[in-house]
Each structure stands twice: as C-alpha cells, then as structure tokens.
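pinning this so it doesn't scroll away 📌
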Amino acid sequence: MLSHLQPQPEDKILQLMALYRDDPRTDKVDLGVGVYKNAKGVTPVMRAIKAAEHQLWETQETKSYVGLAGDPAYGVAMRDLVLDGAVDNGRVASAATPGGTGAIRQALELIKMANPDATIWLSAPTWPNHPSIIKYLGMKMAEYRYFDNTTRDVDFPGMMDDLKAVKKGDVVLLHGCCHNPTGANLTLPQWENVVDALEKTGAIPFIDIAYQGFGDGLDADAAATRLVASRMPEMLIAASCSKNFGIYRERTGILMAISPGTKTQTVAQGSLAYLNRQNFSFPPDHGARLVTMILNDNALRADWKSELEDTRLNMLSLREQLASELRQRTNSDRFDFLAHHRGMFSRLGATTEQVLAMRKSHGIYMVGDSRLNIAGLNANTVPILAEAIVASGV
C-alpha cells in the first residue's frame, strides 16, 4: 500500500525555514515563518499565560476528557471576545478545535455536509492552507480579486465586481482583520458594501480571524466580524488564540456557527460535536483552559490586554520605521503602504527574482511572493532590510 503513495509538495515556508537554518551568515534575517518575535528574536510566553498556568498547576485535579465541543466556558469566553453581543447568544453554536487551522477544516467539513455543491470563494491571494484544505476535501473553489500589486492596497472595485458572480448558498471566505499574506485591509464602510453584496446574492460569509488585537486593537479588529454577524442570518467564524495569546504550540482555536434561530442552532451545535468526534474526538484543553481563565479573571485579563497592546504597538513602530527608512533611501513615498498595512504581514510587491536577490546578497529570507513578517524585524534589522529592498530594485 505505502509503495503507491506519491511524494507531496513541500510547504514553501518550511522549506524557507530549512534554508535559513543552514545559512551560516550571522546577519541573516528571518521574515518567513509567521510567529511573533520580540527584539531578542524570541517568541515569548505572555505574563498572563504564565500566571494562569501556575494557577492551573496548583488547582487542577484531573486531566479527564472534556465534552466533544470542548469546555462550554471556553466557548462563551471566545464568543464574547469575538462577537461582544453582536448577535443573540442563542443563535451561536461553537466547538473548540486544534488551532485556527482546525477550525477552518471543521468549517469546511460542515459546509460540505450541509451543501456539497457550494463553491468556496477565496481572496486572491489568501493564506495557502485555505485552498490546500479545500482542494484536499474535493470542494469547489473560486477567487475574487483582493490585492492590487501596484498600489499594494485592496482592489475594492475588482473585489465587488467579482462578488457579483457568487451564487446563493456559496460561501465567501473573508479575513476578519490583518489580511494574510498582504496586510491590506478593508475599511468599515467597505465592509458595509461587502455585506450588502452578500445579502443580495444569498451567500454565506465565513470569517477567518486569526490576529484579533494585532492590528488596531481588540475591539477595532473585531468590528468587521461583529458587523457581518449583526446583519447576516447565517455565518461561520474560525478564530485562533495562537497569536494574541502567544500559545502557538497549544493549538487553541474555535469554530462558531451563527444560525437564523435557536432551533437551527441546536442542530448546528450537534453537528459541530459530531464532526469533532469523527476527526479527533475531544479537542485539546490546556490552551483553551488558560484562555478561559484569563478572560474570566479581571487582573489576568488586564495584564494580557496590556501585553497584547505592547505587542501591537511594537509591530506598528517597526512598520513606521521601515517606511521611514525607505522614504529616506528612495526619496519617495512609494513604500508608505507598509505603515498603513496592519498585522504581522505585508506583501512587498517584489518579483520572485528580487526576493531571491535579497536572500542571496543580503541574507533576507521572505516567502517567494514577497510576503514579509514584520514581527521578524527589530530596530537593528530594519535598516538592513531597507537597504536590501533598494539594492534589489524593488
């Protein structure tokens, strides 16, 4: 049997990590892997996480299973963090998942179970795992225009034109904030127009919100998701705690399904539990329990929000520094988009050849489509990157 397996394509980011690891240069810069790093190049454990873990160690009496959908208290805490009362609580079903990726996978399984003929519409570009999972599941897929490589901003007219082709029952996958890989985001008035289009076509919105708190703040980053939820009868939300709680390896995510009413919600909740049972039975609990403890404890929550805000402001400062360095070196404002983008990533707009030139001559490692992880920089490496960008003719 195993002799019939075919080699699978290697993940480009994992390939990049290996190349970076094997590069002997001491001044190399890793802007590929999507994790937050502080000025020392370390992905720190947040203070509130440490404190919650200590409390948990002292008080936890069992490691027995939780429910198929996870601890209900986690579902409530995350529902309130993301939606904050935007819809009636009785319409929201939820299930804990192994990370945000697990939530996306379960959402697609749910769509396939409910409407196998649905087409999933993705932004061009989007996070590579979106199309990869859809393709693996054998589902229909289409793209809508999103990023203008010339302006490095959202191609909103193109996006709206493409959304006219969406059919009733199709699913439109949208990034709630901090678009990955581009960093370019819709404004709230533009989100209003998107919801108008979804209402007209009868499409189902599916929001992937993996970076709440990394862009403009916890509430500002959730504003679009709350707007969509307040206006649409049905939607799916995949949320991740990897970034904003810094618990990447704990694989802590959640899938929420908003139904038209409580009767449908009951069926949706049972379906989410059923899908968890088929894929991994009970979801991991450690990270979810830490998140629940933090969100339900005033002191822990305040400390978490403070450190998260420091993280956000650090990335914003790096963006502004990089834009300033490039403005000085080029005597133009053509890279000011870097300061306007939000979140961990920006797409530079460089060609594959220019990306390779930066890697070869300057030890700058970024994904081939020129997505760079702003959080991989620090005050000392920003000038190195700026010099590499200019020298490579971007």
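📌 and the second one:
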Amino acid sequence: MLPRSITPTLQRLATGFPVLAITGPRQSGKTPLARALFADKPYVSLEDPVERAFATEDPRGFLARFTEGAVFDEAQRWPELFSHLQGMVDADRRPGRFVLTGSQQFGLLAGVTQSLAGRVGMTRLLPLAATEIPSIFGQQSTADTAMLTGGYPALHTQPINPSDWFASYIATYVERDVRQILNIQNLSTFQRFLRLCAGRTGQLLNVTALAGETGITTATTRNWLSVLESSDLIHLLPPYHRNFGKRLVKAPKLYFLDTGLACWLLGIRSEEVLALHPMRGALFENWVVGEFLKTRYNRGQPADLYFWRDNNGLEADLIFECGNRLQMVEIKSGQTITSDTIRAGQRATRMAENDALPPWLIYGGEESLERSGIRVFGWHNFQSAIPE
C-alpha cells in the first residue's frame, strides 16, 4: 500500500473522537488504509451478506463481539449501526474506538447526522494526490501522464491498463451504486450523461443545456448531479461570494475528482491523443483543482475553494482566503511561461485590489520562479506551497 498523506489527520482525530469516519469514492483506498492504520481492531465488511444478515437479525449479539472497537467497512450498508453505536459510545467515550468507512457519502452522512453528531471525526479520502505517487516525480513522468492515469491506487500498484480499469469501474459504479439510489430505466442514458459531464470539465454548469443534450428533465439532471457529487466523482466549484462591485457569474464550474476518469469518458486513451486534444487545457485545470482539493481534505480541512468570473470576462481560476486576504491562482497548461500568461496572472488580482496577495501562476512546465510580482509554479511543484 502506498503511504497516504491523510494519515496524520486520521491519527489526530482518533485521539479526540470515539468514532472516526472515512468517506470517499469507491477504490480510493479507504479499506486498505483503515486496516493498516488500525490493525489492532477487528475488521468487519458490511458488504458481506453473512455479516449483514447477522447484524440485521441479532444486532445486540453482532455488536457484543466488538465492545473494544472495530473497523466497519461500508457502514452505510447497515443503517441501524449508527443508532446502536450512539448508545455504545455514550456509555464509553474512549477515543478512536470505532472506525467507519463508506463509499456513498450521502448514506454515511445521513447516519452520522441523525445519530452520531458530535461523536465522530469526519474525513474524506480522494484518489492519490501527485505527492503520493512516486512515479510522478520520475524522469519520464509528464503532466499528460498524470492527467491520463489519474490517481486511483490500483493503477499505481497493479499492472493493469487504465482503459480496462476505468471501463470496469464505470460498469461497477453504475451497477452497484446508481441503481441502488436512482430509478434509472435506461443505463445508456446515464452513461451519455456521464460523458456529457466530462465534456463540460472546467466549464460553467448550465443545467438546462445539459438536460437538453441528455434528453432528461432539469429535475432529473440536478438529481443525477447530486448523486455524482455525493459519490465524490465530481466537484462543483462555487463562485466566490464577495461582491467586488461587478456583475457576477453565479453558476458553479464542474470538475471531475479524477482526471483519468474524465479522460476515459472523453475517449482519450493515449498521451499522444491528449497532447492534441481540444480539452487538454480544461483537463490540466481540472487536475490542478483536484490537487488543491486533495491537499485540503488530507489535512482535514474543508475545501473553501472558489473561482471568480464577472460578466466582463475578468476571472481567476481559483481563489482561497488567507486570513483577511485573497490568494488568486491562474492555471495555464502550456509548458512555456510567456508574457501573455504573466499578464493573465496579473489580471486575476484586479477585482480584489488591496485585498489580494501576490498571484500564483501554475503552468504545465517544470520550473518554479518569481516573475513580475507573480509566483510561478511548475505542474508538480505547487502542492507544498498550499497554506495550512
């Protein structure tokens, strides 16, 4: 198992909460991490029909085996678990006693909200960040390699073709998760919806247009988007809320939480195709946004990331607050720093004026430097600079 950056956060929360929850998309590495980090605890998979039947028929007898604690994998598969744990932890509030994992964030969160509020430390494990993938910093690695492969651990620990893996992943996701939640009569419609979402990577979300192209209602579109977001497959980046005295764009921007999955949905199967693809710039922007999200979640922080765009075209690809000031980030996929990219970084600070810190420019090249008042970062050199 590859070392995970979220480990210190899990260890910290396990000293303060009786229950620890690890959410995230399927195959992001939740189970191996929980079993390795809490190896002293019994492991129970609630995907196992035998264990789930025991729990349903005799919950007291089932839980009597785990008075000292346990790791419950896919905890949302037995919703009654949360209310039973409430009584157990209220009687004995030893920290780090129970660990819950769940792929369907909405199912796990519903149980936590209803029964375990104030008793659980919540974490979110996304696919591997660049800093967790040793090959990212190898001599042959490129930004296109990172985007095309993505961060799912299996693609970096097993000899498997990414195209084969993503094809299986989508089929499994549709079969096991979506059908459990949504009444989808035609799976091909949902698969078309996924591909249309991938085609909107890095764009403002227009729900009406997406619904029209998919051939479904806007209500269904919003429902399906909610499921993708709750399953940690997409992230809707909100516009920054402060009004700088200009007309604002109010729609969020759509990003995938793994660019390898987005590339597969777009039919991109090789670095040669990606290098010339019209969406390469949007996918590079998506990759950078994903790295920011992973870094913040691994630290146990909320996302608190935004973008800015007004109706005059003034924009910043990413904004986050640093104390009372704002950090603007411009993202460019080109491998060369040009005068145009520098000017783009400078424009990003205009709407905030004195509230803005020196802007960042993240580009597809290797070098990091300061130029014309802008901090320039190469594609794999910015993660450590993201402030706590």
